[in-house]
Specification:
12 helices, 2 domains, mainly alpha, three-stranded antiparallel β-sheet
Amino acid sequence: MPTATESRSAQSSARRGITGKIQVVVIGALVITAFWPILKGIYGSWFDTSIYMEHGIFVIPAAVCMAWTKRSALMRIPLQPSVWGAALVLWGAAQAIVGMAAHWIWISRTAFLISLTGSIAAVYGFRMVRELAYPLATLILMIAPPTFLYTRLTLRLQLLASRGGEVCLEALGYSVIREGNIIELAGAKLSVQEACSGIRSLLAIIFMCVVYNYFFVQGRLIRAAILLLAVPIAILVNLSRIVATGIASEHNRELVHGTAHEIFGYISILIAVICCILVHMGLQRVERRWRPPHA
């Protein structure tokens, strides 16, 4: 039979748990209400055809699933509210105001993540934030990169894809003339636009690798290696897509535009994901081979 002290302790813990849930609901509602214009902008960017952030719609469900897998560990963390959490909330609010006033979109949108982290710390403490660090960090992938970085990266990827496509097509025996991001073949003219630069596949593949790392990869070194190798894999797969499109255009020009061209893009992302999985399997083999016998 439980003693009176144990019963009071259990009741107190239950009350704290209920109070914590009420605080989460209230603070969450306030944060969402305060950042609603910014959240609408983030949501709209996922469907903006000029930004290529289609993967953004999957980021929040993925982060929620990550947090759900930790529910047992999260429930054991004692409530340790921190005043520094409230400071983070205020910091995020101030950053959002400055970002919106100066039209710094990325600054204002990342402010929401700062306030969200501060809200968790204010209610549960920074131990909870540390436990949720990976899901919280994943949420940044739902925000489009800063405009200046996005523009420079896209331009460089366009030129890299164009040069690589020219070299590969010439190596395969095709007559190619390139001017900037325009590749001319005997039967067609290919324009490596922003969508074909590889930026779309690069952002989507990085997100998929982050999710894959969390659920299927053990060890920080292998996780870091997969993320780093995701970049050259995305570039090489996109280059293969351009070469395949160039070859296909010699037989049917319709394959360069429309639905067929879009299908080429989605297939290239799928191939890149398969390549990342194969890289993981290869790294596992290397690790097992070089692991000391006593480990």
